[in-house]
Amino acid sequence: MLLVKYELDKERKKNLKQKKLVLISGIIGPMKSSNQSFMNTAKGYLDNGFKVYHFAFYSKKNQKYELSALLKYENYKFFGIPNFLSYFVNGRRKKKNHKKNHNFWQLPNPNEILKPHSELTKSQFIFKLFYDISESLRQVIITPFLKPDIIYAYEIYAAMPGYVISKILNKPFVKRFQGTFIDKDNIDSKTTLFHKKAYEKDCTLNIMANDGTKGDVVLKKLGFKDDKILFLLNGLDERITKPAEKIKIQELKGKLNLEDKDLVLGIFNRFYPFKRIDRAVQLIKELKKDIKNPHLLIGGMSGPMEIPIKKFVKDYKLENYVTFLGQVKYDDMLAYYHICDVILILNDYANTGNQLLEAAYLGKQTIATDDGSNSKVLKYDNIHYVKPHNFLEESLKAALEIYKNKDRVKEKINEDILTWEERMKIEINKIDEIIAKWDK
Predict the structure, then answer these.
(1) 424-433 burial by CB neighbour count: b if 16+ within 10 A, else e?
(2) Are 195 and 158 within 8 A, CB to CB?
(3) What are the residue ranges of helices labelled H in 295-381?
């Protein structure tokens, strides 16, 4: 009888054993102004009882990243690199790119479609080679002592080191992607080899974000079957689902002198070509011909299109119609959404991302470019889709229609969009299944 009880207790403890996840993310992490996808993924595992060992190619002191929320967890352990090396990798690249900004002076036609540059440069190739070797060695030295249940590679840099250590330890290997740079036009191009090698690396499961880049199609073209693909929309960050502070909204309106504006539009993105902030300034230029006092808020960090966009604003005397906010903290995004009459999401790439989900949830009037799939996935009355090849005409018409009905529109919460917590439960249930099968 005692022996039976002992065996039952032993089995119960085994089932309650804390699962261990090695998270390899390279240069990807919780950046201060963006990438709540990474933060909510890490928190999802931590909140569900996993012990997370996070291997990253930056230090705790690197000011690009905000690790404080994760470091509060007892079941989170961070393995970074020395700060001087972290600065050399991130800071030096930023300075070099800043010089290149001055070469971009012409804005593209607003009806032109731009795709992100995914070419592998010589410096990227050298860094990738260095990272693959150094991180793989670090995994071989440290990870066997951690006795993980699963290896989780976050984005392309982590794929090779994750694959190597999973094979050495004979553990399930999961790859997680926030989207893809590859499409049907460049899938066999040498310029995308950098990404393709990571996507096609064999694994137990690919977790691909449904962000408008059709990553599921790419994975299938590379030979993966449905049972090795988990294709999910992102979730809503809890900071967006909390009630808005009316006092904070009024203070922000006053600070930005928006009380007398007839229509306030907002675009919150980085100044990268495919993010298409240029479309927003082209739109406000046309909109002011029909509306007395429209205003555009542009929130985002620097990028190669920042200088030409600011030059365009100055050349066309739009300074009174455009406010550059600079970097906007994600904690403040809810207030910024609420001071806008119209949210603009104008990407030519990855346009079914977090912002479209947030705008749809909040019921904010939104003008979004349609890639042919996002309008099928997110159908809401407050989202006005426009064709990118006819952007200026269709967006102007949509903005004027919103202005005409501005006082009659009632914003309502669309509660059928999953939160990050709910979205992560779908993922973690799948991970639990993988671990359980692997242990048998």
Answers:
(1) bbebbeebee
(2) no
(3) 306-315, 333-339, 354-362, 374-377
| pTM of the full structure | 0.86
Domain 238-405: top CATH class? alpha beta
In whole angstroms, give the CA distance from residue 335 to residue 339. Answer: 6
Nearest Cα to Cα of residue 236 among 415, 64, 20, 431: 415
Q: What value does the mean pLDDT take over residues 371-394? A: 90
Weakest mean pLDDT among 74-78, 103-107, 328-332, 365-369: 103-107
Among 94-108, 159-173, 303-317, the least confident range? 94-108
Looking from the CA of 415 toward its CB, the CA atoms found within 13 Å total: 1
Segment 271-275 shows an average pLDDT of: 89
- Do the domains 1-235+419-439 and 238-405 sit in the same CATH topology, yes or no? yes
CA atoms within 13 Å, Cβ hemisphere of 156: 20
What's the CA gap between 214 and 237, in Å, rounded?
23
Side chain identity at residue 303, one-letter code: G
CA torsion, points 197, 200, 204, 210, in degrees to nearest 10?
100
The H or E element containing residue 12 is helix 2-16
291 and 400 Cβ atoms separated by less than 8 Å: yes
* Positions of E strands within 327-415: 342-345, 366-369, 383-386
Query: What is the average pLDDT value for the chain, to the nearest integer?
Result: 88
Going by C-alpha positions, the residue among 114, 117, 162 that lies closest to residue 135 is 162
Helix (H, G, I), strand (E, B) or coil at 77: strand
pLDDT in tens, 50-99: 999 999 999 998 888 889 999 999 999 999 998 877 666 655 444 444 44
**Which CATH number describes the domain made up of 1-235+419-439?**
3.40.50.2000
Residue type, 424: M
For the chain, the domains span 1-235+419-439, 238-405
Question: Tokens standing for 93?
Answer: 């690249």
Average pLDDT over residues 215-238: 93
Which tokens in the block code for residue 157?
A: 């840099």
